[in-house]
Amino acid sequence: MSLLSINRSTVLLLADAIHTRTHISGQAPQRHTHAWSEDVSVSLQEVLDRTQEIAAGVHWQTLQVLIADHHVHYSVVPAVDVALTPNEQLAYTQAFMVQTWGESAQTWPFRLLRFPAAQANLLATMPQLTAAVLQSTPSTLKGLRKMLFQPSAKPYASALLALAPRPDHAVILVPEHQVIRLFVFNQGDCVHVSSTRLEVSQLASLLPWIKREQALHGASQSPCQVLVEPSRHTLIQALKAWQATTGPALPLQIVYPRDVLFDWSAS
């Protein structure tokens, strides 16, 4: 089935707004931007309600929530030498989260992205959303539990990584909106992840941070890629201008995912 014939909606939660893209078969795509309040759960519920109003009576084949910027924390969880049952993996991951972020982290929802070498897993947690959910009323929780914490909910950067080929050894930068992620891969495994603020007009200021992360994690000779969606035209122009100035100090390669995760046009 062609994507053009699928009724689908994608919600992208960023630091300063919530963006929606709604595609209904036979209609032009609809784009909306919503401000969000301090109560993230209420803001998301309002957006999802609005989406349902736009497409009253439509049967959804795809409804996806993508989470980015400061709403997501990343870390690397070392793999263990023995096979774990799903319950054991859950307990092990939660123990790691508590050790890393404290007791409150035990209740955070998380995603694990596994890699072929299986020596480590990339962990993405969503603590701010959890805090909002725990303080919400049952009526607010209803829509969130149905849509936000089902498999359709994905941290943006790790979901984009899953759509891109990776060298066994690489440093991969994933720009979100106000945050840029740096992933270090060694022998196919993600061995380190770091984040810093993203200012599109000041990309050159990222160079010391990138070089430091490369040196600290034995990746100075690894290729450096920027993984970005092709609909981010302004960012890509800025990246190409920066790429032309880095030279041998940081050979940059701009790469694109094999499929569209979110249409950033007009975001």
Quick tags:
267 residues, alpha/beta, Nucleotidyltransferase, domain 5, globular
SSE topology:
Elements lengths: L7 E6 L4 E6 L6 E5 L5 H15 L7 E6 L5 E6 L7 H16 L8 E5 L5 E6 L1 H8 L3 H10 L5 E3 H6 L8 E6 L3 E8 L2 E9 L9 H10 L7 E4 L5 H14 L5 E4 L12
Parallel strand pairs: 1-4, 4-8, 9-12, 12-13
Antiparallel strand pairs: 1-2, 2-3, 5-7, 6-7, 9-10, 10-11
Helix pairs in contact: 1-4
How does this model look, in words?
The protein has 267 residues and is of the alpha/beta class. It folds into three domains: 3-67, Nucleotidyltransferase, domain 5 (2-Layer Sandwich); 73-125; 163-255, 2-Layer Sandwich (Nucleotidyltransferase, domain 5), CATH 3.30.420.40. It contains seven helices and 13 strands. It has a five-stranded mixed beta sheet with strand order 3-2-1-4-8. It has a five-stranded mixed beta sheet with strand order 11-10-9-12-13. The protein has a three-stranded antiparallel beta sheet with strand order 5-7-6, with no helix packed on it. Helix 1 packs across helix 4. The protein starts with 7 loop residues before the first strand and ends in a 12-residue tail after the last strand. 31% of the residues are buried. Residues 1-5 and 131-151 have low confidence and may be disordered.
Instruction: Report the β-strand fraction as a percent range.
Output: 25-35%
Number of helices: 7
Number of domains: 3
C-alpha termini separation: 27 Å
What is the CATH architecture term of the largest domain? 2-Layer Sandwich
CATH class of the largest domain: Alpha Beta
Please name the fourth-level CATH homologous superfamily of the largest domain.
ATPase, nucleotide binding domain
Mean pLDDT: 81
